[in-house]
Amino acid sequence: MTEIQHVPDDIAEPPPLAARALTGRRALLIGGGVALAAGALGVGLARRAPERAYTADGLRKLTLAWNANAICLAPVLLAKELGIFRNHGLEVELFNFAGPTDQMLEALSTGKADAGIGMIMRWIKPLEQGFDVRLIAGTHGGCIRMSGSRAAGVTPDPKSLAGKVIGLSDINGAAFNTFAVLLKYHGLDPKRDVEWRAYPQPLLGEAIRKGEVQAIADSDPILYKMEQDSRGDLVEVLSNLTKPWDRRVCCVVGAGGLLLRDDPESARALASSLVQAAKLCQGDPEQTARLFAPYAKASVEDIAGVLRTQTHGVHPVGTDLIGDIALYAGELRDIGVMKADTDPQRFAERTVQNLFT
User: What is the pLDDT of residues 249-259, one digit of tens each?
Assistant: First the structure.
């Protein structure tokens, strides 16, 4: 079994939040629950006993792995801070995990963590490997985009990318999977009509300024900020809310098979908590931004701006989630990312656990 290694991130971990009033709602102390796990996600978690764990006041203890750099996952912190998890009978410990997705899925499938949350386009290919993990809910749509330079002839029309070089941080990652599918939908061959070039994420802006690439693709808030700071040069061409994805889920909650078999009620409570938090985020992105600001290198205004571009009212479960996953699986199969013999519907049905029947 692969040992889960600590992967440094660029988040500046703040001190524990002081108790404070949040508009119209009761705030609870986080108490450092979202601090980086010492050394790695597996440290300490591997020693958890297999039996169910409860607090003295009867709350079910669960661990949830997330990426604290991802603004789109701010509702996770909202659920913790506003007591939504507690109201559903849970005490959820959050661990910031920035490692490869297959390592997170391994942690879930071996019981080192109970559940995790992340971008479906990072998860879907590793899930093909047969990890003992099932998707239980979607939380929102949006959070990754492609922007191009007007000076280089790029316009909001995806066809303007023909013959252009696109920079991204991982040639086999979520950005490629997303935009290869969307380019194909909009009439471009993602392997012949454009060139893909990998750069370290901090160098994407420099690459487009130097003209080495004419467009760049990455997640928010990076692309959002670059667009804001480009003095009108960078124009959004595509995002994972571009048709036909405008009503689809982006980030999903996955639970390990151990939790789903031993305690499906708690897994359902976790999914319900995160869906409720997503609804609150949709209704008040400013409050969510104020709460999340200590954990991101972005202003409250920018965080709220990013959240408003996302669809936190989209959170499919059960058959609706199966439908989204089947669509993604078929599209990724057709561009050669998923196996050629993948049956999209069968893949989706065995990947999603319907806890709400």
Answer: 999 999 999 99
The β-bridge partners of 64 are: 94, 115
Convert the pLDDT of each residue in 276-290 to its tens digit: 999 999 999 999 999
Of 19 and 302, more confident? 302
Structural domains for the chain = 45-142+248-351 (3.40.190.10), 144-239 (3.40.190.10)
* Cβ atoms of residues 211 and 120 within 8 Å: no
Task: Give dist(CA 244, CA 233) in Å, integer.
Answer: 26
Half-sphere exposure of 107 (CA within 13 A, CB side): 33
CA 55 to CA 78: how far, in whole Å?
21
Distance from C-alpha of 103 to C-alpha of 41, rounded to nearest angstrom: 10
Helices (H), 252-338: 257-262, 264-283, 285-292, 300-309, 318-334
Angle, alpha carbons 297-300-301 (nearest 5°):
115
Number of neighbours of residue 48 by Cβ within 10 angstroms: 14
Tens-place pLDDT, residues 134-188: 999 999 999 999 999 999 999 999 999 999 999 999 998 999 999 999 999 999 9
> For 83, what's the count of Cα atoms within 13 Å in the CB-facing half-sphere?
8
In a 10 Å sphere around its CB, with 0-12 CB exposed, 13-18 middle and 19+ buried, how is residue 26 labelled?
exposed
Give the helix/strand (H/E) hosting 294: none
Give the Cβ contact number of residue 200 at 10 Å: 9
Q: Are 169 and 197 in contact (CB under 8 A)?
A: no
Distance of CA 264 to the CA centre of its chain: 23
Q: Are 92 and 63 in contact (CB under 8 A)?
A: yes
